[in-house]
Specification:
247 residues, alpha+beta, 7-stranded mixed β-sheet, globular
Amino acid sequence: MIRQLTEHKELLAAQRLYESIWRSSTPPVTAELMRALIKSGNYVAGAFEGEDLVGACAGFCSPPAENFLHSHIAGVVAGGRGRGVGHALKLDQREWAAERGISEITWTFDPLVRRNAYFNLAKLGADATEYLADFYGHMHDDINTSGESDRLFVRWKVSAGPRVVNATGVVGLGISADCMPVRGTTAGHTVLVAVPPDIETLRSENPAAANEWRHAVRDVLGGLLAAGARVTGFDRAGWYVVERNES
């Protein structure tokens, strides 16, 4: 069940949930901040299995003229992954926004995390519109491991649906047999940009390789977006599909 959080004990549970996921020295979001978001009319929701909180999501609204909800943080407990909890939270967020006349939801995600790219771009049908280099600065938690916090900024129209892509084109960034980035060519209308299968494990086992991937994706994918190209989807095999504007 998905519902808005209202009680202080629920907000503390959400704070603890975020702490358990990010394992940072300070909470990614505090109960006090979520209380303020709720009071000022923003979105703070939780996913429950019985009495147990298994996922939570919080966001805030833009100035009225811009008419979007920015989803700042969302997380699901380890045992809830792959069971549709995150998807249910996003659908609830979309319904909440639609009821308030909000036409678009935005958020950021790490472009190196393959499962998140597929979820955001293919399953939800969001559009990646900006590449943000080291957006949050160095983040001291177990997920980001103090590395540079590059992010893709996405916009999700409330009316959007899933997207099917055909992952064919020139390879702008490939992947070698030992999972290292291999630069190719961006001289084509459709350019494919690979990301590693499991960047989180790579960060802990081979930080230098993870850093090489960070800068390779920043240069190729970020460079394409800066030049006016558009991400049209993400193939489950691990490729961003990017359409260049050749006019």
